[in-house]
Amino acid sequence: MPTLFRAFGIRFFFYSNEHNPIHIHVRNADGEAKFNMDVMDWIDNKGLKNKDLKLSEFLIEENKDLIIQSWKQYFDK
């Protein structure tokens, strides 16, 4: 499970058996959510509070290039 980065108690990661479209998972003590990188919206949320979803979305936008590059390096082998 590759972790890309952590910020404000939130972990941003991929599962090792992912599939397209490019997306990222985020997890904190409250739960986990999944964000689609194409349309920048969350796909699934299991317990994250709205403030954490908004913070995650902001951090994903700020690191979008890193996330996409990391996805391609890991899954396009």
Number of helices: 2
| Terminus-to-terminus distance | 16 Å
Q: Number of folding domains?
A: 1
Structural class: alpha+beta
Q: Which strand order do you get reading across the main beta sheet?
A: 1-2-3-4-5
Q: How do the SSEs run, as a string of H and E? A: EEEEEHH
The total beta strand count reads 5
Question: Mean of the pLDDT scores?
Answer: 93
Which stretches are low in confidence, meaning pLDDT under 50 for 5 or more residues running?
none
List keywords for this structure.
single chain; 77 residues; alpha+beta; 5 strands
Notes on the structure:
By secondary structure, the chain is an alpha+beta fold. It has one domain (3-75). The chain contains two helices and five strands; from the N terminus they run E-E-E-E-E-H-H. The protein has helices at 50-62, 64-75, and strands at 3-7, 10-13, 23-28, 31-36, 41-46. The protein has a five-stranded antiparallel beta sheet with strand order 1-2-3-4-5, with helices on one face. A hairpin with a 4-residue loop joins strand 4 and strand 5 (41-46). The longest helix has 13 residues, at 50-62. The radius of gyration is 11 Å and the shape is globular. The model has no long low-confidence stretch (mean pLDDT 93).
